[in-house]
Input
Amino acid sequence: MRLYMSAGVQFEDHSKQEIKYSTCYMCACRCGIKVTVEDNKVRFIQGNRNHPINQGVLCAKGSAGIMKQYSPAKLRNPLMRKPGAERGSGEFVEVSWDEALDVLTKRLAKIRATDPKKLAFFTGRDQMQALTGLWAQQFGTINWAAHGGFCSVNMATAGLYMLGHAFWEFGDPDWDRTKYFMLWGVAEDHSSNPMKIGLEKVKRHGGKFVSINPVRTGYSAIADEWVPIRPGTDGMLALSMIHVLLSRELFDWDFLVRYSNAPFLVVNTPGKPGHGLMLRDENGKPLAWDLEKQALVDGMQPGISPALFGEYVAPDGRPVKTVMTLLAEKYLDEQYAPANAAKVCGLPAETIERLALEMAHVAFKETIEIDCEWTDWAGRKHDKFIGRPVSMHAMRGISAHSNGFQAARAIHLLQVLLGTIDVPGGFRAKAPYPKHVPPPIKPAKEVAPNTPLKSPPLGFPTGPEDLVIDADGNPLRLDKAYSWEAPLANHGLMHMVITNAVNGDPYPIDTLIFFMANMSWNSTMNTKNVMEMLQAKGEDGEYKIPFLVVVDAFHSEMVNFADLVLPDTTYLERYDTISLLDRPISEPDGPCDSIRHPILQPDRNVRPWQEVMVDLAGRLQFPAFVKEDGTPKFSGYKDFIVNYQKAPGIGFLAGWRGKDGESHLVGEPNPRQWEKYIENGGFFQYHLPKSMRFYKFANREYLDWAKQVGFNASADPIVFELYSETLQKFRLAGQGLYEGPKPSDPADRERLVKYFDPLPDFYQPLEEARVDEEEYPFHAINQRPMMMYHSWDSQNAWLRQIIAQNFLYMNRRQAERMGIEDKSWVWVESHNGKIRVQVKLMEGVQENTVWTWNAIGKQAGAWGLKPDAPEATRGFLMNHLISELLPPKQGERRITNSDPVTGQAAWYDLRVKISKAAPGEEGVWPTFDTIKPVPGLPEPVDVLRYHTHTPVNLKS
Output
């Protein structure tokens, strides 16, 4: 059959079209996009084939960026709560930008001149934290953090305190060379296109792909082996594999001796001050036992022959053991044997043992080599890179548990024992990582009027002295990050901000700014109660949170609670930097960064939040943003990005620096830097020479270069800390044996002793330990689908056609035992709440686990959807079941439902019971009042169509 078309039909007038390149913002991948524009409208969006991240691949979300751009939920004007209207009523009046910024400036100036910490500024899934953090530092408030505390801070912190890089955006598997890939708890939205490209390579090359996940969807569906683990037990699985490796001496001896602290000596004096700390010389150098000299030596000195195992006596008589000895003693214990771990993880013991042995076989029997001369940190010459082609990746399924920090450390320890860190075929660091362990930045704690903080609000404590607490041990931050409750909370505890602010704990605040954070709905635990908190008033009749500013591009559920709404642009309407100072798009073979630039002109009275922050910084006279005469240094965000320098020659963009644009990574400002990025397709990529691409933690050429370009402060080698002296210091503080700050509250002391094991550890998730497991027999988790990302995209007309309601997915065999039928309605109840939902049955889920897609459910009237949209009438949130506080314990203050080390929100620790709904009990519950539309929004419609011109009729 042939299709004949008239030669006279013209489908496209290409003369009206223009191609522009930018960076996608439909998820966290930051893929390169090629956008066809016609008459200031998007014709279509494709992948950029030249981009280092996605190489032209684009997912449904990226292509559907068109319908995000043309969402009817876009905010159109600054808004202020109508005088006399109640917060949350949705009663607003439109105001000018001048009026909105004058009101905000006046309020912020007063706070800054009196008590800067009365401003709390918390940002959601943005990608410009280097700027928002700088802004907060210049303002002088310690109450700033981004979304990582309720996303995956466990991932970042575990890696940065052990390896100097981490899972998440800090490293990647060596997709081209790995032969055995193990994926731990990764949902299908994360690293979407790069992950798909990588998995295709693994499959094509004949490698094995193992997925450790309670749910078999997305990536897991194409795994060669799916391991349906019980949620929250991944740490035990990793440690049991370590037991297998140690019991058979299947570990990389040379890798441990050369690159980790495994040979370092640890003081072994239980019950005494100093127990568990490294034995050090008078210069603070860690000591090891030299087998040839039969003497103590500087463990960092090259050319020594340190003992990996052994017990010795220090000159002062104290007994000491090597780290590796402590490690072997711990993990060779029978509690970690596969037969016992199997009971915890819900897996066959044979599977645990086999997986460990398979990885060891690939690492040690299928080693790969790359011929290339390189020099290590000690000046030793090598003629090749040795690769152990086993790699791993992990994400929120590990992180979102209260034991996730230690679980992530256990997975990293497994990799180190196999010698697979930053080697060919292994798990490789991405610039500007690896950093020294941990990065040498301490969190700010001193606050003074009209004075910038001396250091950033977030940093990396190395002991109790670095906590952000007062002389009595009380938290100084609103979210209680860096307090005894969450000492290593490197991304803050955003999920605790509203609760603490309303309770005035540790103190009341004046103004709370949320940027792109839907904290009254899907981004919060305990949703119904948090909505009530946002409207809570004190005995004086005033709101407990006096002034609430919401910055967003769309009419989310959070907007109606605002006192002031500042409408943001979309990602196609503004300048952005995806910076090496922030969260870059780098690849293991070299640093990369990218930009966005205005592809479309806004048709609304909106401003990019970046521009507004630069404007406010000038108005408030931040030193880094004004000249000596008080006039602004920068004309706007674009000018700021070009001319601001964190250090001489180092700015937000790394490419085309220097006045002539011929320098890269380091160089003075280039006035045409934005234009150079735009000409290059919106990104910059620097290719490391082959000799610098592996063993970066110990590669002399790389270490020298990383210092030169400002990635690291020194060129010293980066030593893997299998044993964390930092954690041991906090444990000693809990035991009352630390020569420094110690907690007074028994609950804090108990948590430090129990959870701050200097070696990776497993413990039952905190909430699980406080509920009756027989009453609540099911684990309940949620995950983001590949075709959606948070609540941003479940408003998207094209993506809604893929999924517009969510179900509670349940193991079919388990459901049939309980008499629960497919698509029936059930009640799901936790210790904190109760919901009614519709069930779907499936085989690919662990028997005692139920799950759903995250953020599909909407409050009626939000996001430009009709009140009777399926997202509001049939979609639901599991958040109603989850509490931001642990179940109460007699005699104990209420404590955050978070990882006790990092403050990571424990979304996945939830336990529930399930019962059949009675006949006639249908429809989701609870339901909430329909949100009132804000001024300027169009009337919702049933059908939303978009086209740039009249469609051509293809019928003959």
In short: The radius of gyration is 28 Å. The first strand starts at residue 17 and ends at 23.
